[in-house]
Amino acid sequence: MPKLDQKQILIATLFVISFIIGISFKNGQKNSYTIVQTSSEVTNNLVQTIIYIKVHLAGEVYNPGIYTIKEGAKTFELIKMAGGLKPSADTNKVNLVQILKDGQRVMIKAKSSSKSKSTQAINKIDLNTASLEELMSLPKIGEKTAKLIMDYRSEHGGIKSTDELSNIKGIGEKTITNIKPYLLN
User: Fold this and answer.
1) Of 9, 14, 136, 152, which is least packed with CB atoms within 10 Å of its CB?
2) Under CATH, what is the fold of the domain 132-182?
């Protein structure tokens, strides 16, 4: 007689138990019916299927990136996988017990500086001599806009007033107001 492994014994046991419960249920109640499951169905009911999802973690964690994690996992579990939070992380702006979803992006923001901008030392720059990097250090000015400022000043012989910036595509009144405290002009 061949030797049965543990899985085969478990399946056979579950089948017998299902059959006995089915018979006793049928005998105990009139007009009832019994659903008999096959051994493969019993096995499928006992095997738990684990589904994995992909989540993008960014910001103030030690190892930002795309992670594969089990469905139903929470944000704090994802952060633990990423090596934890940096000291600069602001946990007040993220729900650590939120259940994650496939394709979700979780951003861990940095704590805002305790100093207000008015009390910080501001290194003012000259729009006519500033380098690309200096222009990009201005609020809401990226590389593309910084290049447009440099092109404008070379085409027009310099920038005489900050109001001229409104002639540059992508710079509006709000941006000009935000960057004025950082400019010498």
Assistant:
1) 9
2) DNA polymerase; domain 1 (1.10.150)
